[in-house]
Design brief:
A: 9 helices, B: mainly alpha, 11 helices, about 75% helix, globular
């Protein structure tokens, strides 16, 4: 399978501190690829760097063989990459429907069909269409964040810890939706702390520790308890 | 007695309507950028000076002067945004505020370089006397101000809640990171909001200058102070709050001036602001636009 997303030697720094110290990885078209790693490994920094919110110091990001490294975030959305950010970041003061409309801001065609389809997939959002997004539960806000990202019709969906802070039942629902979206043809690049769930859906995974990719393989290429140990704690190098 | 109360209330609403416009302009900028733009008032002053200059040289009518003020204020506002706020979008809020203070000085110098006298006459909103109605004397200026401010509020509401651009503005107010990730061109929204806020401010400036029938370089600081006070009275960052805060400021001023005397007018405002903060510290924490 061809690489849809290609990250090469990416370095992103906050002032003098490098959070990414030369990250290289690929996401194959049509795959679910997962990025695991302990807190502070640089996973969210990588997601923000791909989406253009953070500007990398060096290295490149290529999407469909096009260099998107220094593009503005809105231009990256229009080239087909959408990020569901950590902690969901819905627009709390706007209604559920307005959140979806904002997600399609780049598009000029009619949104009705997409909104209907998303409402069918997320019936809870339909019930709450006119309600401010800030009044939704955590799980509902996560559904909304996913739906909002889908409104831009992305070819690549980036998801940053969609299970964060959610009840186990809701987490299962989120992963069911991830699998469904994948079946419908969306390529998904997922950051997760929940290694057990992630390894069940992913075809490929990367382990990131202290700003570097330290392992890459298929689920099963590394014993799950070893993956989980390193995903939570980092390798015991010290 | 009751007549005085009614008369003061009417006058207060008239002044309050223009304060509401100033507060709306401030709130838009503050809500979208989370930055304090001290040059907001001076840009308005510059716009009114441009109109005064046109009036002195060509004796234009008030409508044309309003257009001149609108264009000049918007231009000055976008200039301030490019210089003070666009480069500091992710940087320090203090740096942006200090930069906007520097531009305040610049705009004042520019205005006085062209029109060096301290005071210039400005054409009145309405030349005739007040209307008499059931013992009340209604100042026509106050009515025009209230109607114009209400019209501007309605237009702003339509823009913010009924248009695509308004959706983007509210999205940026709620979360600028999420707005970027949704495909909204955030720097462009910033520039457009500055232009919109400046236009609202210019309308307020024209109404105030022609109600006072004069302009001085102090109009800049005056507008910044009134706008800030009204915005804080209404609670930072809320658009309906800005309107309420402006009207409250106008009413507080007219009543305190009548019952306590002119020297207590501004003191009353700051005491009320102090009391609000002391009794309810969360009053001025930023809130969502909706």
């Amino acid at each position: 399978m061809a690489a849809l997303l290609e990250v090469k030697d990416l370095v992103t720094a906050y002032g003098k501190i490098e959070a990414l110290k030369g990250v290289s990885l690929e996401v194959a078209e049509g795959s679910i690829t997962c990025l695991l790693g302990p807190n502070g490994a640089g996973k969210t920094t990588l997601m923000f760097s791909i989406a253009g919110v953070l500007r990398p110091k060096a290295g490149s990001v290529r999407f469909r063989n096009e260099d998107i490294t220094r593009k503005a975030p809105h231009a990256i959305v229009s080239s087909g990459v959408a990020l569901v950010p950590e902690n969901r970041l819905v627009f709390p003061g706007m209604t559920v429907l307005e959140n979806l409309q904002a997600g399609a801001y780049q598009r000029n065609d009619s949104l009705d069909e997409d909104i209907e389809r998303l409402f069918a997939r997320f019936p809870r959002l339909k019930e709450r269409a006119a309600q401010p997004a800030g009044t939704l539960s955590g799980g509902e806000q996560q559904m909304l964040a996913v739906a909002r990202a889908l409104m831009s019709r992305p070819r690549l969906l980036l998801m940053d810890e969609p299970s964060l802070g959610l009840a186990p039942l809701v987490v299962e629902e989120i992963f069911r939706i991830v699998a469904e979206l994948h079946r419908d043809g969306t390529t998904i690049f997922l950051v997760e702390q929940n290694a057990h769930m992630a390894l069940k859906v992913a075809q490929h995974f990367f382990l990131m520790e202290q700003g570097r990719v330290t392992f890459s393989g298929d689920p099963g290429s590394l014993a799950e308890d070893e993956v989980i140990r390193r995903a939570y704690l980092g390798s015991a190098k010290a | 007695m009751l007549l005085d109360l009614a008369q003061n209330t009417l006058d207060g609403l008239g002044a309050g309507a223009s304060y509401a416009l100033l507060a709306l302009g401030f709130t838009l900028i503050f809500g979208v950028l989370r930055r304090m733009n001290l040059s907001f008032g001076p840009a308005i002053m510059l716009g009114c000076y441009a109109a005064t200059w046109v009036n002195l040289n060509f004796q234009a009518n008030l409508l044309l002067l309003a257009v001149v003020a609108l264009a000049a204020t918007t231009l000055a506002g976008v200039y301030v945004e490019r210089l003070c706020f666009a480069p500091h979008r992710r940087g320090s809020a203090i740096a942006a505020m200090v930069a906007s203070f520097a531009l305040w000085m610049q705009l004042e110098e520019l205005a006085t370089a062209f029109l060096p006298r301290h005071l210039y006459a400005f054409p009145p909103l309405y030349a005739g006397g007040p209307l008499e109605l059931a013992g009340l004397s209604l100042r026509v200026e106050a009515i025009v101000m209230t109607v114009a401010a209400a019209g501007a509020c309605a237009l702003l509401y339509a823009i913010l809640y009924r248009s695509r651009f308004g959706l983007a503005v509210r999205a940026v107010i709620d979360s600028s990171t999420a707005a970027e990730l949704s495909g909204i061109n955030v720097p462009r929204v910033f520039a457009a909001v500055f232009a919109l806020a400046s236009a609202i401010g210019a309308l307020a400036g024209i109404l105030i200058a022609s109600a006072h029938e004069q302009v001085t370089p102090m109009l800049g600081m005056w507008s910044t102070l009134k706008g800030l006070a009204a915005m804080m009275l209404g609670g930072l960052g809320s658009l309906p709050g800005a309107v309420a805060g402006g009207l409250a400021l106008g009413l507080l001023e007219s009543h305190s001036q009548w019952y306590l005397g002119p020297q207590f007018r501004d003191l009353t405002i700051y005491l009320v602001l102090f009391a609000l903060l002391a009794l309810n510290p969360r009053w001025m924490t930023t809130r969502s636009a909706s």
